[in-house]
Amino acid sequence: MRVSLAVWGDGDDWTQRIEQLHSDVTVVRQCVDLPEAVSLADSGLIDATLLTGSWEDVDAELIDALIAAGTAVIALVADADVSARLRSLGVAIENPLADPQSVADLIELQTMAASPRARSSFPSRPDNAGRSARPSHRSMPSAEQPGETEDSQYDDAASARAEVVVVWGPQGAPGKTTIAVNFAAEAAAQGRRVALIDADTYGAAVASHLGLFDEAAGVGILCRLADEATPASRLMERALVRVSLAGVNLLVATGLPRSSRWPEIRPQSLMRAIKELRHELDLIVVDVASPLEMDEDLSFDTTAPQRNAVAAELVKQADRVIAVGRSDAVGIPRMVKAVDEILTRTPEANLEVYFNKVRAAAVGPTPETQIAESWERFGPKISISGFLPFDGHAADTALLSGTALIESAPKSSLRKAIVKLLGDRDLPQRPKIVRQSRRLATFGRRKG
């Protein structure tokens, strides 16, 4: 196949070497910098990019942009640490001392694999990896990285055991963060190794629910470290806070303290972090923002950041999406429209519909029946998976004490309903502990 190649860096010598082969690989541009290569890739003028320059100038965002444009990226690197970092970003590595024909062959091979790689994300979690199989609309694709064989892909997917659960809900405070926090806490109480990630780019609230300081955005640190090819053990040590709830530990990546910092969370970076964490954990719960639509004014610019891209990509790729809607005259129509939009835009999403804050005062004397009938008549073609009762006192007590229901209200009806989301298991028996001190101390420190 014919391959149009751009060369970046100290590549004059390599341009001549490849051209002297008179092969199917043709050098069409010697780029001054990597943004020029990205522009060529976006314009469809090149099929592959050969990197030979200073590696300090190569960052994850530029590599992601090249790969997203369907361009193969090959680097000539001798240093083992640099090779590991670039390989984790999806770059094919060759030794600078390799002969030109070997480099040309690698360029052709990676170009043929570039398009599937541009659509990939983190690898799928096999059904037999620590949990019972559950029906899903599809299996998540495994990312074929440059230079990997089919066997190495299979090994990577088999070792990625953690289930990724996204908690999403339409606008209007449906209670998705409450569900996410308590879902993660209950899973941890059942003996699983769980991480809770706050990826809401509009209004992060996990830190507030758990009485944590949110000035250091754990999710931002997680993304930056993932772009540096940091292993999972270091990611958990440096980006995740260990929170003790009812005698068990929950790992938490706090969200952005200011919504204006949303460009710090790139979808490629967060996916890379989740892919790495899956090897060390049993469950990853992600709280995402409500809006999922893309900015049409920026759709022509593939390198421009999209505020909703993180939520949209996670909803698309997660093993399970718990969609939470409010049970009232405003929340039900919003849920109908939002779920219909998701199924239209992302039909492969593993979506489960739940209505929260179910109460007779807002819907009628038989709220679950009336919601189900309304959904059957006006809703999209997906069944309601369950209902969560309104228990304002229990939720308020947990929020005030900066903890989860398993500590503050272990016998609450809301907690029992959330446990059912995990599967058919008995409720872990934990003592009732209301830790007022952590919440009050947190407010006191903030005032100071």
UniProtKB/TrEMBL annotation:
**Compositionally biased region (Low complexity):** 115-126
The source organism is Neomicrococcus aestuarii
Which keywords annotate this record?
A: ATP-binding, Nucleotide-binding
Please list the GO biological process terms of this entry: negative regulation of cell division
Domain of life (superkingdom): Bacteria
Domain CobQ/CobB/MinD/ParA nucleotide binding spans what residues? Answer: 166-391
Which SUPFAM superfamilies did the record assign? P-loop containing nucleoside triphosphate hydrolases (SSF52540)
Q: Where is this region: Disordered?
A: 115-156
List, alphabetically, the Gene3D superfamilies matched: P-loop containing nucleotide triphosphate hydrolases
User: What is a single cellular component term in the Gene Ontology annotation?
Assistant: cytosol
Protein name (database record):
CobQ/CobB/MinD/ParA nucleotide binding domain-containing protein
- Sorted alphabetically, which Pfam families does this protein's record hold? CbiA
Keyword ATP-binding in the entry? The reply is: yes
